[in-house]
Design a protein that fits this description.
The chain has about 130 residues and is mainly α. It contains four helices and no strands.
Length: about 130
C-alpha cells in the first residue's frame, strides 16, 4: 500500500462513504438522531449512572424512552409475532436453532426496540473510544 494519499483518492473515499450512508433504511434516519440526542443529554462525565459505563438497566431505560418517542413522533409500532424457527437438522438442537444467548425463537421480542438498543450501545461504545 502506498504511504501517500492523493486528494482525488480522498474524494473517492468520501463519495463511497456518502453512498453507503444513503443506503440506510428510513427507520435509521428516524431513530439515530434520537439515540444521539439521548446520549448527548445523559452521557456526560458528571452523570454517575453513565460513567465510566452504564448498567444494563440504565441502557434499557434509555432504549425504552427512545422507543416510546419513536412511537409517539412517527407512529411506528413494532408488534411483531414470534418468528418461526427456520433451521432444522443435526447440530441445531431439534426443530429450530437456539444458539448461545438465545432463549428461544425471539419470543416476545420487539425488533424495533432491539434495533434501538443496538444503535444505543454502539453510540455509547463509540463515545468511549471502544468502537470496533
Amino acid at each position: 500500500m502506498p504511504d501517500t494519499v492523493y486528494p482525488n483518492e480522498m474524494n473517492i473515499s468520501a463519495n463511497c462513504g456518502e453512498a453507503l450512508e444513503s443506503m440506510y433504511p428510513d427507520i435509521y434516519h428516524c431513530v439515530h438522531p434520537m439515540v444521539r440526542s439521548m446520549c448527548e443529554m445523559y452521557d456526560v462525565p458528571t452523570n454517575t449512572h453513565m460513567c465510566p459505563s452504564p448498567s444494563r438497566a440504565v441502557v434499557e431505560q434509555m432504549a425504552d424512552q427512545i422507543y416510546n418517542n419513536v412511537v409517539i413522533n412517527f407512529g411506528i409500532r413494532d408488534d411483531v409475532q414470534p418468528m418461526p424457527r427456520q433451521f432444522f437438522g443435526p447440530g441445531f438442537g431439534g426443530p429450530g436453532f437456539v444458539g448461545p444467548g438465545f432463549g428461544g425463537p425471539f419470543v416476545g421480542r420487539i425488533f424495533l426496540r432491539d434495533l434501538i438498543s443496538i444503535l444505543l450501545i454502539r453510540e455509547l461504545l463509540f463515545r468511549r473510544g471502544r468502537f470496533f
